[in-house]
Amino acid sequence: MAAIASGNVSTEEVLPDERKIDMDEEFKKLRPDETQFSTMTDRLGSKPAIREKVNWIEQDLFPRVVQPNAAGLVGDTSIVLKPGNGLYVAKNDMLRNMATSEMMKITNVATDTLTVLRGQGAIGASAIGATDKFLVVADAQPQGSDFPAARYAQRTLGFNYTQITRTTWQFTRTATEISLYGGNEPAKEAKRKAVEHKRKWEAIGFFGARTYDSVGVTPEFEPQGTAGGMLEFITAGAVLDQAGAALKPVAFDTWLMKIYPYGTTDKVLFCSPLVALNMAQWNRSGMGAQWAPTPENIHGVHVDAFISGAYGYRLPVVVKKEWAEFGTTGFGALAVLVDMGNVQQRPLHSTSLYTNQQPIGKDSYAAGYLTESTYEIAIPAAHGKIVNVGTPVDP
Question: I want to staple 222 with a disulfide (CB 3.0 to 4.6 A). Which of 1, 168, 216, 251 is the partner?
């Protein structure tokens, strides 16, 4: 028999399942999709890989700067170069000391030891400093000379391995049939997993390691490769270590000076919010413009700011907001300079959605994304990173 009530009927007298829930159909995202590096490399276009290891060849022009191994006197006609520098010079080459402007003519090369004529031209001989650098201006061959020995800079091989990533989800069949706020499953979860899958390749692009295990691990015991990211390829000479100190404009510009001569000028700086905070404090005039917020897009990605310094280029700055999760040390105090002209995706198997992956006869639904790809990151000297940036203080 039904229960009997009297008086007003309040919300509490209505059956709980009779009341509709006031639910916003749009779910709020704690972490938005911030995969700018993946998006940029998507826009640059990819080149399909044809096997699990991708290779590329890098080449440079013949070196033209050499250094002495020690200081020398004004009258010294025998100069020892740093080990290996003797390969860059030959008899009849003209050397200009870039510290004193003195010109020297090489009359003989024995490994790294040069015999030279000092004070060639209008500028006289000067003492040689241990840190001086010599520019190999050009050779000066005598009339009727024989064919000089050919020399060339050897090409180098760059390589990376493909990595397989899988992002999966699974529901009971019943869970896919009922009505839910924000849309039904599994379509709703598929959208979220697509973002998570893309975030994996964003992380690989920066932090991945280049490895290959031909034996593999249990239970498959099959080959397993991992793709190297930016940190794997950046050379030691392109690293600025702030050792916990705030980042200053002069240090930043000096660091850029080491990197911009190499590769292309199409470079982008990806930085943590802490590094962006440092740069936002800068206020300088002249060729080095201050932090300049802008709504412009570069390679299909919103750029948070531009900053220019050495060379006068406008350098796009993308703030990796999710790196704030790492705190104020380690990757939370990191900036990575990427030469976009020397980075490319190399998919062996482009991202694919595989549906109905549940076992036959099981009352469930399983699906997932699978990608096997890698990054081609050429010319390591054209990229760079800033590490251990400290927190700025008010002036």
Answer: 216
HEC profile of 208-234: CCCEEECCCCCCCCCCEEECCCHHHHC
CB-facing half-sphere around the CA of 20: CA atoms within 13 A: 4
Residue 377 carries which side chain, given as an amino acid letter?
I
Backbone angles phi, psi at 309, to 5 degrees: -150, -120
- Domain 65-139, classified CATH 3.30.70, yes or no: no
Give the number of residues written for the chain.
395
What one-character DSSP code corresponds to residue 12?
Answer: T
Domain boundaries, the chain: 36-57+158-387, 65-139
Written as six digits, the tokens of 32 are: 């938005």
Q: What is the pLDDT of residue 269?
A: 94
- DSSP-assigned letter for residue 18: G
Which phi and psi (to 5°) does residue 348 adopt? Answer: -90, -35
- Return the DSSP state at 91: T
